[in-house]
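Appendix C: a fully annotated inverse folding record. The material below is reproduced so that readers can follow the format used throughout the book. The structure is listed first as tokens, followed by the designed sequence.
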């Protein structure tokens, strides 16, 4: 446990330096999307989460929804990881987690809560060896930026059982549903969540790498109105965390 804590502290310090070499890019073109779909396949295949297939790609019906943003994370110009950010509201109700755990999430959407659902979190199996501690933070940072931008009530995480302790310790998530099979994958995933307004300040104090500017968030999530998910009334953030 102590060595793990030291690794986390070291990773956060190195991550702040590497942010200048990181590019978060929204996949818009067919070529960009295909590269990410191929990356998903290689990452899932390496960990035994999918079966071999001739087309060597992983995609689903959520990738093209108007409430979904699929990002590639580029380190020194090379694609190293990816995550899909889905925004759930009373109007936008489709995502992996909402469909796999409907009885947990839909009643909360009915009450007007806003949720960020990051899924398809994958890292290049070869490049991750260069920065094994960093990619989780550099990639997960997109989910925190989305929580800020869309004024989320809840940050979700669909997590394999063996990884839940990490999310609980580092990101202060709690398990809200036991593992279930996700369509297209061979391993079960549980649902975890964190109350973003409650834990926001604590996480940002512990891991400054998760902070972002309003300009950075607008550049990533402020696309055209017809593709923009509805937002909650604005909360005024702490100036230090803007």
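Designed amino acids, in order:
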């Amino acid at each position: 446990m102590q060595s793990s804590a030291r690794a986390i502290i070291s990773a956060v310090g190195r991550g702040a330096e590497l942010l200048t070499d990181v590019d978060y890019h929204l996949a818009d073109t067919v070529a960009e999307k295909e590269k990410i779909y191929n990356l998903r396949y290689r990452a899932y295949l390496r960990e035994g989460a999918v079966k071999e297939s001739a087309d060597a790609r992983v995609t689903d019906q959520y990738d093209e929804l108007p409430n979904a943003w699929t990002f590639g994370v580029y380190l020194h110009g090379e694609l190293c990881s990816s995550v899909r950010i889905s925004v759930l509201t009373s109007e936008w109700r489709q995502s992996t987690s909402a469909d796999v755990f409907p009885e947990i999430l839909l009643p909360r959407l009915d009450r007007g809560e806003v949720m960020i659902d990051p899924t398809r979190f994958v890292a290049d199996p070869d490049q991750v060896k260069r920065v094994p501690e960093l990619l989780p933070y550099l990639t997960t940072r997109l989910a925190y930026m989305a929580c800020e931008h869309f004024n989320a009530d809840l940050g979700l995480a669909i997590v394999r059982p063996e990884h839940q302790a990490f999310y609980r310790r580092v990101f202060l998530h709690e398990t809200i549903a036991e593992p279930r099979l996700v369509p297209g994958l061979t391993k079960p995933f549980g649902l975890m969540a964190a109350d973003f307004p409650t834990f926001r300040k604590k996480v940002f104090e512990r891991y400054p790498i998760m902070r972002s500017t309003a300009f950075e968030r607008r550049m990533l999530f402020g696309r055209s109105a017809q593709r923009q998910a509805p937002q909650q009334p604005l909360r005024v953030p702490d100036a230090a965390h803007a």
